[in-house]
Amino acid sequence: MDFELPEDVRNICDVTRDIVRDLLPLEQQFVETGEVPPIVRQTLVENGYFGMALPEEYGGLGLGALAQAAVQIELAHLPPQFWTELRPLMGPGAKNIIYHASQAQREQLLPGMATGEIGIAFALTEPNSGSDPGSMRSTAVRNADGWVINGSKTFISNGKKAKYVIVYAYTDKSAGTRGGISAFLMPADTPGFSVTGTIELMGTATPGVFELSFDNCQVSADALLGEEGQGFRYALEGLNEGRMNVGATAVGMGEFALQLAIEESKQRPAFGGVISDFQAIRHYIATMATDMRAARLILLDAAWRYDQGDKRRELASMAKLFATEAGSRTVDTAVQIFGGTGYCRGFAVERLYRDIRITRIYEGSSEIQRNTIAKELLR
Fold first, then answer.
1. Is 363 a catalytic residue?
2. In whole angstroms, what is the distance from residue 231 CA to residue 132 CA?
3. What are the residue boundaries of the Acyl-CoA dehydrogenase/oxidase N-terminal domain, all occurrences included (predicted)?
């Protein structure tokens, strides 16, 4: 059994590590201004990162789940705001387009997505429908010109910049969750669509995530994504990869926190020596390193198996659950090692502490992951 990454994946990780090293010094400018320096996006576009998960025939890199996970571990050393536009392009919405869009839809969207010209938003969550998508209230009613969409969505990443919104709505309430929800590719300039609010977050995204409103939005018949009534299945299918992506982000954040904590412990003076001389700190570091190695292995195993066709939901859920919780424990301990300075703005561990917290919530909370794992094992 070979636990080493394939050579091509190692190569792109090496390149990514160099890019991250070059971009990290710009974090201070971002902290001071609240604006991501334009060179960050330019660098990611020029090096093909917007197309990581997109097929090569449409200008993407065509990376599999393993490569995407490994690259995201490296990118996660950066402030999330530096690469927030990349995540929707690797998440459920993008996967729905790749797997289920018509040829015309793919040709219309994927090349522009790969170059960063076309942003997308995944609009599933509603004010009264988070972990339970079946309770959504958005509807799409067929008429002579296609479909009329009404409803609202909340906590939508990239909602303000997206040129296309992937909207999930009931097309037949009587058919229930499994047969009554459909997905639509709606242009953001559709009359009746509006961004009605911005939800500011404690970390992860600037300025935040968005509330969307759909008021009699008329879309054409060919806006339907895939088959009518299959939207819920598509969303769940895409969430497998989305959950591994979140796990990869948590592994990257946790590993970076561990690295920072080791460096700090070796140079922070205390009682005539440095704090790494003390057993308590050494035990912290040993536990952190063990947690992160286990998280990396369980994540990469799930991603590798996914690429081999083993797409069991419990494996993705296990990877997200363990990686996000282990990463959170590690970041928390890193703040403890830094002491008071770890709680001060301007230090990377403080930023990591705020940013990693959401990984245990979005793309399915830890509680939902445990439910999914148990449900799959008890079938």
1. yes
2. 14
3. 7-117
Whether 1 is covered by a domain: the verdict is no
CA angle 298, 88, 235 (to 5 degrees): 75
The values of phi and psi at residue 141, to 5°, are -110, 130
Confidence of residue 178 (pLDDT cuts 50, 70, 90): confident
* Structure tokens belonging to residue 284: 């912290």
Last-in-domain residue among 204, 230, 256: 230
User: Residue 322 belongs to what H/E stretch?
Assistant: helix 313-338
Beta bridge pairs of residue 316: none
Checking if the pLDDT of 1 tops 80, the result is: no
Domain boundary pick from 230, 247, 281: 230
Instruction: Identify the bridge partners of residue 143 per DSSP, sorted by sequence position.
Output: 146
Phi first, then psi: give them for residue 24, nearest 5 degrees.
-55, -40
Best CA proximity match to 90, nearest among 49, 143, 125, 47? 49
Look-up of token digits 């604006």: 35
Same-domain status, 74 and 208: no
Which stretch of DSSP H or E encloses residue 118?
none
Are residue 191 and residue 76 in the same domain, yes or no?
no
Catalytic residue among 211, 363, 367, 376: 363
* pLDDT exceeds cutoff 80 at 131: no
Mean pLDDT of 151-157: 94
